[in-house]
Write a structure and sequence with these properties.
8 helices, 60s Ribosomal Protein L30, Chain: A, 285 residues, 2 domains, five-stranded mixed sheet, seven-stranded mixed sheet, Phosphoribosyl-aminoimidazole Synthetase, Chain A, domain 2, homodimer
């Protein structure tokens, strides 16, 4: 099975209502009198990082990618649980982990450390507390809303390619936690764009049953000559969100388009219909 | 680093108070006026299961081992998040997962599905809600308390060795969820014995700063000729707990000893002092 088939099969099991049918990045559930936000991301050597990667950076990104999912819900991190496979560079992993937890003010709650041969797999579960109710989802964009993105795209791509100015964006990304919390009470829909702007915009459009019309020239990119690539590359950990027409974003963000009634394509890029998600961004196979 | 060194290093990072210094199997934290119980266990091919294992059984045990940690806290399962590496037997994994979730009335909350080459690693995070306050820990055993264990030990061992009568105990263990909830308001200390009775009793004694005096003949075992092995083999997923002298267990359980003042060994087995944990049970290296 591929990832999509497996996930489709999982949705046929006994799902918690808070799982949101797996159509969101996090589970959202009432617990006591608060709302709990839960997410789990895994990273495997060979698939998500190279065998020669600096494992301190891998540890940082494991934390950042999970916290980015919490950011997209406007959640405040409570703590993380780590699933760790021992290796030859544990000290370095600990250093990156420690730096990320300090940087994002997130404590360790627990986890499991195991011995495993061969390529390594790391898992992290992040626990958050919702700051706004209802908790933003991918599914709430309304016709007429403005479409916005935080930050400048393509920085992680340039860093991956070795551009010294953008190495940090690739190796040590920062989830938009405070921005997510500031946005949560206002947005009609929100998600992070860790798989690439266009692919994630496509998903938001599908979940909201609307068409997103995006003006590619409006998207802030780190290198204008690489605009097309920047729209498709992932790992930027910025936030994509929609706001009612009369609402201005409470944080720095750029308007990149407008929500239209569902047409025959979920996405219009400079008026060109995009009918399927293939080639739009980073798809796990 | 080995597992113990890595965990010791983790405790020097920023820990949530609910992490209990990693001296317990679960994190325990107040959330929204209730008490949240969190645990994460990982299983790797080659370390925790053989490459030729029935992956449906592996899925079941992944769920059971995590829920057993919740059981030891007297918690009611809320749901689980799965970290899954795709393979050639995904359908079979789904079947075992589905059966376990149904059997233990626990829904799926989310997770991550990834592609990974080589040996596979699965992770599961279980979320529970405490049923009693304070939540039982390993650290509360008091001098004079009786020591008890649920069930019959050595069944998983015999099943592993191919004994038809005990195959299910090895392949499809049941966490003691209802027993844990019934016991939680009464016990002074509790934990599961998935790493073996003696090793886990040693840990409970260390955490409680007492000596546990255990009468090996009193321990119910599936095959009396294999008593010594049964006390050291893990995977039984029974509960070990201590109760004040005048309290009877509210469920079926066997008294196997008594809590004594901390002597020079944490464990007395038939009056023989056991000074260190080596060789007592299943130790992850």
């Amino acid at each position: 099975m591929n990832e999509a088939d497996f996930i489709a099969a999982l949705t046929r099991l006994s799902l918690h209502p808070g799982a949101r049918g797996f159509e969101d990045d996090c589970a959202v559930l009432e617990f006591g009198g608060e709302t709990l936000i839960l997410t789990h991301d895994a990273m495997a050597e060979g698939t998500h990082f190279r065998a020669d990667a600096d494992i301190a950076d891998v540890a940082w990104k494991l934390v950042a990618s999970n916290l980015s999912d919490l950011a997209a819900k406007g959640a405040q991190p409570v703590g993380v649980l780590l699933g760790y496979c021992l290796g030859s560079d544990d000290q370095s992993f600990l250093q990156g982990l420690s730096q990320a937890l300090e940087a994002f003010d997130t404590p360790l709650l627990g986890g499991d450390t195991i011995k495993a041969d061969g390529q390594r797999v790391f898992g992290l579960t992040a626990i958050g507390k919702a700051s706004a109710n209802p908790v933003p989802s991918r599914g709430g964009a309304k016709v007429g809303d403005g479409i916005y993105v935080t930050g400048t795209l393509g920085r992680a791509m340039l860093g991956y390619e070795g551009d010294e100015d953008h190495l940090e964006a690739f190796n040590r990304p920062s989830p938009r936690l405070s921005e997510g919390q500031a946005l949560a009470p206002h947005v009609s829909a929100m998600m992070d764009i860790s798989d690439g702007l266009l692919l994630d915009a496509y998903r938001l459009a599908k979940a909201s049953k609307v068409t997103l019309a995006i003006d590619s020239e409006a998207v802030p990119v780190a290198q204008p000559g690489r605009r097309d690539d920047a729209l498709r590359w992932g790992d930027d950990y910025e936030l994509l969100f929609t706001l009612p027409e009369d609402t201005n974003p409470p944080i720095d963000a750029t308007r990149i388009g407008q929500v239209e009634p569902l047409g025959f394509a979920p996405l219009l890029l400079d008026d060109n219909p995009i009918l399927n998600a293939q080639g739009l961004g980073y798809e796990h196979s």
